[in-house]
Amino acid sequence: MSxxxxxxxxxxxxxxTSWRGTDGKVHRVSADSLRSLLRxxxxxxxLPVPASLPALVVGQVGVATPLPPxxxxxxxDDTVPFRLVFESGETFSGRAAVxxxxxxxxxxxxxxxxxTLEIGSGRTTLAMAPPSCRTVRERAGNGGGRAWGIAAQxxxxxxxGDGGIGHFGALANLARQAGAAGADALAVSPxxxxxxxxxxxxxxxxxxxxxxxxxxxxxACCWFQPHDVVLSMRRQGIAETALKQLEDAPLIDWPRAAxxxxxxxxxxxxxxxxxxxxxxxxxxxxxxxxxxxxxxVFEALHAHQLQRGPRGGNWRIWPxxxxxxDSPEVARFAEERQHEVGFHLFLQWLAARGLGEAGRAAQExxxxxxxxxxxxxxxxxxxxxxxxxxxxxxxxxxVGAPPDPLGPIGQNWGLTTFSPGGMHAHGYRAFIxxxxxxxxxxxxxxxxxxxGLERLWIIPDGGAPTDGAYLCFPRxxxxxxxxLESWRHDAIVIGEDLGTVSAEYRRHAERRAIMGMNxxxxxxxxxxxxxPAARWDRNAAAMTSTHxxxxxxxxxxxxxxxxxxxxxxxxKGARVEDALAARDHDRAALWAVLHTGGEPGPMPPVTEEGAxxxxxxxxxxIGMTPSxxxxxxLEDVLGLIEQPNLPGTVTGHPxxxxxxxxxxxxxxxxxxxxxxxxxxxRDGRRAT
Length: 688
Fold this sequence. Notes:
Helix 4 (about 170-180) runs parallel beside helix 10 (about 340-365) and helix 9 (about 330-335) crosses helix 10 (about 340-365). A hairpin with a 5-residue loop joins strand 2 (about 20) and strand 3. This protein has an eight-stranded parallel sheet with strand order 21-18-15-12-11-24-23-22. A seven-stranded mixed sheet has the order 4-10-9-6-7-8-5. It is about 40% helix and about 15% strand. The chain contains 21 helices and 24 strands. Among the domains are: about 1-50 and about 390-440 and about 450-490 and about 500-515, no CATH class; about 60-130, Immunoglobulin-like (Sandwich), CATH 2.60.40; about 515-685, no CATH class. The chain is of the alpha/beta class.
């Protein structure tokens, strides 16, 4: 194949064959990389040219909708008849214009929703999106442009008898506390389904499926009485000291704590549910339909295959018949192990019930927005969502990042993403399912690595990150669908837009009211100085930090530099002495800007006491920004030093294992320092 032909095929598939790195240089994707990626994107064949209407056409209300080229029958006088059946059941008939080259354009439609379009001999679903997502002001009402909230890692929360892992019951408790303090929102870590049989994979950003929930976050007491739990534990011979030992541990012991929680839940299922499931659970399972059943079957199959060895953890190397979720062999397995499948259905119901109670707790506590969910950028290719929707994911490729100064060899996140061709062929089914599952019961959604709506760096399996290339996605359609689901669920949208982001993406995101993220550490002008609060972007949520970045105390103390030194994560050629000197300069610059509009006092010392002073100032500062929503991570509310996750590490740093302060006092937000900081944040919101 000629290079010219290869380049043409790559462009047709959406691959960007050259890209500009952070070093300013233009890099070209090798021919070998293009061939490897095309094998994934094309499935071994050339991409077909659409010959008929796709399964879904995405448009925007009030704007004419051009249809993709298709065979037009019944055209006359440069028009073709069409009929619309709206979601409401109403119908409308009209004629659409046909251009000289055969292209059809529908006149503007005014109703938001998923409608049925019949035109010529074709039939499709017409998704009509509003111009933009719901905004903070719309959701929060009068004064809603000055909303504020906190962010928390659910697994790190504490509750009596939790056995070492936080759960949705603890989240409900925090929601009540936050609402009582006047918060409008509570942003949480991802709650996507993990692998019940593989508790050592616990990063919330590496899920098995983004359609269902992490059942390790289920709270038994959202359905069962405490004495039922105690009796079940006694029947199983589980000592309460086993729970206490895990609860008192400095870090979460995921394998042990997960095994114990599942054992307790299994006992409750066997004792109270297995023989006669509650009507509420039966209704939930029926409403969730085939997708939930397939996920439960996958969980049972996955555990069964793992008994044969580690290779059993990847469905792509299971026996051929088991790789197909619709095969007779899979159906037979599900029938033979229906009680095991039933257990996983029970777990999903219990988790959904607990998350629903947490959402209601937020609303009843007076939050104007409520819970803000987190949508991970991808899914584990060996997980249930890819097994269920094989044609709609890029099986055979991973997403990551190209080389940059912090990652000179690039990054491979070990996750896969939607296939643009598969999405088009199936009417964006997997994408819409994922959005709906994330928006459900929430007042908002944070989309991780939101630039994935425009492009993602994809890497062929077996290749290095440098073997990857950028793959384009249908940005306009995806953004419109995000806006449509935001409108249907009355929920705001925040996009994690840190890093390299195109100016074009930002223009489109602002137009769609997809907020960005203003993080204190990155709010700097071209000269590198920290920007005063008044200059922060109005189309972004303001925050001191994120789960991947240092806490304010940790940054002030240089704890993050210490970790990177110990784990040899400093940029190539950088010396720790230079990093510490740069931090000294940045401390002075930050302290000066935190007191914009007033005379700063003496710079606090680089001590824990000094760090607490800086955290106080930072809490008020983000409140003073013009951002419609200010979010203070719970780590900064409590003045903690360590951050939840250190990117680029698998071992050496306790990622996703830290718990919030414990003891008998679970009213975290009533602690004097926490209450004081939240008061400063509120004051900042009122100050401008």
